[in-house]
Design goal:
Layout lengths: L5 H8 L7 H18 L4 H35 L8 E5 L2 E7 L6 H9 L9 E9 L2 E9 L16 H20 L1 H25 L4 E4 L3 E4 L5 H20 L3 H20 L2 H25 L15 H24 L19 H8 L4 H29 L1 H9 L4
Parallel strand pairs: 2-3
Antiparallel strand pairs: 1-2, 3-4, 5-6
């Protein structure tokens, strides 16, 4: 292992000469994970030797060229209340080490303190809070705001331009499309289908067969089906496994929550409750399914479930359906429109319409219907806005830099 040339080390890790420490760490972690999945744990020793060899070379190359820059940065940092005890500049990565009594949010203060320096050769700042000279208590990595490769890829879930603009563009386009008669009519069939999928999801989660049709009808078999229950449960299991394999905790949590909800709706709720929620689920689906399609835009699924492209049409359909339902029920709440009695196929005279069933069979008053759907719409809207604000806060430094056009 010690006899490997530098070229062999680069080839083993599949990286090019001149990489940064961050790129080396990423490539090494990726290769180690591959070997673990393949069961070739012995090859990790060879990878570690190649990693150490390249890392040593980067240190030796970067050290003489970076001394003056390190001195400049150290001088700047010495003006802080808590001075660092060590500063390293390795290729394109600046490492700063502090004592552990500092909180992690101190890293943000350091970032702004260095923003006055011109650091064109630095792409990443890594700040360490040390419990002892060799033991790390916390670590925070900050990427400087040069254009990343992900920011030029419209299908990347790390594209910050897409994360910033997707939600407001989708909502604004929905408001525009719903205000124009032609586009509103054009999108109406998709809204109907979302409505029918609302019925179907209630049936599927309750272990019933259902086929949503795009002309305002969903075929539902009222008897439980073990085939449906275990078929969908297996899908949730596969989703959980894919999330576990790729370490996507949000995917794993989603699969677990869906499996628990499916169990409760299939085996705990009564047949009467199922039929009530089935009637509720049509318009309810216009809210929760469309909100789900919009929020899902921000979450990357495992490789076997990738939807990099399809999330775009989904967020457009979701935004239009959601806004159409929200604005309609706000008008109903104000008294400007009436509750949609009857069904799409047979009109207001159909006693089997969703609202008629809720009113006549399950004794929902008109006010309860209005309050329930209006509240559901408001809850979904709050959750969507909260999710968007979360991503704004996560990328706030980059957003502020784009607004102020301030070089970092």
């Amino acid at each position: 292992m010690n006899e490997m040339t530098l070229e062999q080390c680069y080839a083993l890790l599949k990286i090019d000469p001149g990489v940064s420490i961050a790129e080396l760490d990423s490539a090494y972690s990726k290769k180690v994970m591959e070997k673990i999945q393949q069961g070739a744990k012995q090859e990790k020793i060879l990878l570690k030797a190649a990693y150490d060899r390249i890392k040593k070379e980067i240190y030796q190359t970067a050290e003489p060229e970076s001394n003056s820059r390190v001195d400049q940065i150290t001088t700047q940092l010495q003006r802080l209340d808590s001075e660092p005890f060590h500063v390293k500049l390795q290729a394109e990565t600046l490492q700063i080490f502090f004592k552990t009594d500092l909180k992690q949010n101190y890293a943000d203060f350091i970032y702004h303190h260095l923003s006055g320096l011109e650091l064109p050769e630095i792409k990443t700042i890594v700040i360490y809070g040390m419990r002892s000279p060799k033991l790390v208590n916390w670590k925070k990595e900050i990427e400087l705001n040069a254009i990343r490769q992900e920011d030029t890829d419209p299908y990347s879930f790390k594209n910050r331009y897409v994360l910033l603009l997707a939600f407001p563009i989708a909502i604004c386009s929905a408001i525009l499309f719903q205000s124009l008669g032609f586009t509103k009519l054009l999108l109406f069939p998709l809204q109907i289908w979302v409505h029918e999928f609302g019925h179907a999801t209630v049936a599927w989660f309750s272990g019933r067969r259902a086929i949503p049709l795009p002309f305002g009808w969903t075929n539902v078999v009222l008897e439980r089906s073990l085939f449906v229950y275990f078929g969908i449960l297996i899908l949730f299991g596969l989703l959980f496994y894919a999330g576990w394999k790729e370490k996507k905790r949000s995917t794993m949590l989603f699969a677990i929550c869906c499996a628990i909800l499916q169990f409760g709706m299939t085996w705990i709720q009564s047949a009467e409750q199922f039929e009530m929620w089935l009637s509720f689920g049509g318009i309810g689906g216009e809210f929760y399914l469309s909100a789900f399609m919009m929020s899902g835009f921000y979450f990357q699924l495992p490789n076997y479930w990738r939807w990099d492209f399809w999330r775009y049409p989904f967020i457009i359909v979701g935004a239009n359906t959601f806004w159409a339902a929200l604005s309609r029920w706000q008008q109903i709440k104000k008294g400007a429109e009436s509750i949609p009695w009857g069904s799409l196929l047979q009109g207001e005279g159909d006693a089997g319409g969703d609202m008629n069933q809720l009113s006549e069979v399950y004794n929902w008053t008109g006010q309860k219907i209005i309050t329930t759907y209006s509240t559901l719409g408001n809850i979904c809207l709050i959750m969507l806005i909260s999710l968007y604000i979360f991503f704004l806060i996560k990328h706030r430094r980059w957003i502020l830099d784009r607004i102020t056009s301030k070089p970092l």
